Amino acid sequence: RHYLSDMPIRDATRLLIMLNQSRMWQIEQNKHLGELCGSHVGQREQLAQQRDRNRQIQYRNVPAQIVESLQQGKPFEPHLQPETTVLSCSLADFSTIASFCNPEEVMKMLSELNSRFYRLIKIHKLHLVHSLADSWLIVGWAPDRSRTCMTSSVLDLALGMAAEARQIVVRHFGLPLRLRVGVAMGPVTAAIIGEKL
């Protein structure tokens, strides 16, 4: 057996062996660094996809002109919409349902109901302004649609939402959900309250 320490310090063979060992170590380090960089590229793409998805969720219920203004960093000035139809609805028996059903059942019921309502809102091309647990606020306004058309869309949505709510039966009571709905027409001021959406 030969050991590196047995060779004279200034021996050319010793220097070649040391250079070769150094080169092999650098190759291993470069390979490892390449793997790390490759995983970071994948993570960067995943992060970009997640950021885009979050933006879509954040701006899902916001009219395009407001989204554009926010993305450009401009403040959105209050804007009067003279002809608007507003729909407000909530579950009639939500407090009773929430007190008798377990949280998982309540969340599953609300999730299913929200999915159905979002689909209807998208079909009717209306804007969900606010949704919180068992209540929803939807606005119909657009400069390119007539007031009659917009009101008709909101009323159709109200009927559709009531029908969709009746499709979901609360197992604890064996009864379908009931929806309270109110519709109002008139001028509305669109604004962003606070500094962030």
Automatic annotation (TrEMBL):
Name of this chain's protein: guanylate cyclase
Keyword Coiled coil listed: no
Species assigned in the record: Pristionchus mayeri
EC number: 4.6.1.2
Every Guanylate cyclase domain range: 85-197
Keywords of this entry: cGMP biosynthesis, Lyase, Nucleotide-binding
Pfam families named in the record: Guanylate_cyc, HNOBA
Molecular-function GO terms, alphabetical: guanylate cyclase activity; nucleotide binding
GO cellular component, one term: guanylate cyclase complex, soluble
Any GO BP: response to oxygen levels
Domain of life, source organism: Eukaryota
Annotated signal sequence range: none
Gene3D superfamilies (alphabetical): Nucleotide cyclase
Reactions mediated catalytically: GTP = 3',5'-cyclic GMP + diphosphate
Record InterPro entries: A/G_cyclase, HNOB_dom_associated, Nucleotide_cyclase
